[in-house]
Amino acid sequence: MDLEVSLFENILKNPFFLASGPLSYSAEGIIKADRAGAGAIVTKTIRQKAAENPTPHIIESDNNTLINAEKWSDLPPERWIKKEIPRVNDISAMLIASIGHTAAEVENYLGPVEEAGADGFELVSYDRNTLLPMVEKARSITNKPVLVKVSPNWDSPVETALEALEAGGSGVTVMDSLGPVLRIDIEEESPLLGSENGTGWLSGKAINPLMLRYVAQIASSTEKPIIATGGISTAEDAMEALMAGASATGLCSAPILKGVEHFETLRQNMKDLMDSKGYESPSEVTGAALKNLTDKERSNELSFKFAENKCINCGRCVTVCSYDARSLKDGEMELSNERCRHCGLCVSVCPTEALTHE
């Protein structure tokens, strides 16, 4: 099974990026991710001044979901240019340098970072009004790929992303973390993060459905590459993102929580999943679901099927039915067609696929 993908005239060994974040804090972290099997690696965001982060600044909010108040790289740009990037020039992964958050910073650092050995760039801005000048400045400096990182906190993320592509962006990373958000320690009556007002930025599984929506919308309007980043942890998550229109997928929260070795697990699981679905390469998966995204609602009644031999009598389908339409006793399922509203929730919670619908 071949997991190679072609991206900006680069051949990546697989479609899995280490997204910009704590694990790509320096050459040491980048080398570790390369050895773990990441196909591409994005540095922490390089800015004019090294970040000073509050403490604590990262927490696990829920399963596979993080909240962080981390800013950008805590290494100054000169350190990246003179030491960190030159140290990783012989890695097998594509190295993408993240630069933010202003056109002036792009002007000052993109050229030297390129000379140091970066294979491409990712531009980060929390203000959509600064993004287009950043893209235009980057394009005037380099011919290498320039990714634009889409923020869900912009007023119009999809429209802004498409404008940035028109301005010269080579592709988009979808998406940055969502926020600001807040968690409270109920014992201490105080926020869990040490940031101003205790707020931070949500990443991981919780933002995955929003990311998929943006990927599909952007993919429907451009053929430029999309790097789907947000809540991808499993091979199934990655396939879903590719089907929505992504060319590759980025991971940040998952390898933090599971260890950077998760890239090898993901690679093997993706091979198995693609083989089971009859796909020979990730490019065959990209955009596979777009043809089924229509602007018409489906209103037909669902046709339910029940496989008694798969049922473990967990009763989840009965518990979640708001209309008391289902009953399950000793492996026998009964459905009241009069009560059923065909919402489909019962099928989505069945852990063994004993209950399905068409």
Describe the structure.
The protein starts with a strand and ends with a strand. Strands 3-4-7-8-9-10-15-16 form an eight-stranded parallel beta barrel, surrounded by six helices. A four-stranded antiparallel beta sheet has the order 5-6-14-11, with no helix packed on it. 32% of the residues lie in helices and 22% in strands. The radius of gyration is 22 Å and the shape is globular. It has 358 residues and is an alpha/beta fold. α3 (103-116) links the parallel β7 and β8 (120-124). The mean pLDDT is 97. It has helices at 27-36, 77-87, 103-116, 128-141, 157-166, 208-219, 235-243, 253-258, 262-277, 282-285, 316-319, 345-349, and strands at residues 5-7, 10-12, 16-18, 40-42, 58-62, 65-68, 94-100, 120-124, 146-150, 171-174, 178-182, 184-185, 190-191, 199-204, 226-229, 248-251, 304-306, 326-329, 332-335, 355-357.
Which helices and strands occur, and which strands form pairs?
Layout: E1 5-7, E2 10-12, E3 16-18, H1 27-36, E4 40-42, E5 58-62, E6 65-68, H2 77-87, E7 94-100, H3 103-116, E8 120-124, H4 128-141, E9 146-150, H5 157-166, E10 171-174, E11 178-182, E12 184-185, E13 190-191, E14 199-204, H6 208-219, E15 226-229, H7 235-243, E16 248-251, H8 253-258, H9 262-277, H10 282-285, E17 304-306, H11 316-319, E18 326-329, E19 332-335, H12 345-349, E20 355-357
Parallel strand pairs: 3-4, 3-16, 4-7, 7-8, 8-9, 9-10, 10-15, 15-16
Antiparallel strand pairs: 1-2, 5-6, 6-14, 11-14, 12-13, 17-20, 18-19
Helix pairs in contact: 2-3, 3-4, 4-5, 7-9
